[in-house]
Amino acid sequence: xxxxxxxxxxxxxxxxxxxxxxxxxxxxxxxxxxxxxxxxxxxxxxxxxxxxxxxxxxxxxxxxxxxxxxxxxxxxxxxxxxxxxxxxxxxxxxxxxxxxxxxxxxxxxxxxxxxxxxxxxxxxxxxxxxxxxxxxxxxxxxxxxxxxxxxxxxxxxxxxxxxxxxxxxxxxxxxxxxxxxxxxxxxxxxxxxxxxxxxxxxxxxxxxxxxxxxxxxxxxxxxxx
Length: 225
What we know:
The protein is an alpha+beta fold. Helix content is 60%, strand content 13%.
């Protein structure tokens, strides 16, 4: 289990800092910001919510959970440099532990955990006896025969979104106007803007594909609006 970083809003008193010290949690604070970050050792992550609530004396305000680069790499079984490249390309959403471009990267735990679950699911499918070498249709048929329609649809949805994401990421990186616009931003802003541009195009393309499927199902494709 990797260390987890918890970000939350609010002022801290001496008793709160003492409580974090007793837990052995590292507290990160930055002048002019009311957002705090604590590093939680892996031994404590199971009781995380109860421990931080007890240390603060109340429920944390706007809590967000993160991995650092090493934690995300461990969770996904990737090299840390691969994680950093994917953040830079906008494939993985990330924040900074503090202000400035040199502050350590923090990657959203929910996104990393979801990606790890997708990888684990694909691995289980292959370990169950479905091998590479199929085309998409043949692969889907093999999954359905062995594991049922629900599993096949999950695998297909994961594959299709991954294909759209990769295509939209290539489009955004090849867009000269966006490139010039993002060059004016600092690194954090550029990462966020790139990720949002890719996500927006993915959502639009998914909507287009869903509508196209409806039109085909209705037999209305010969009468464009």
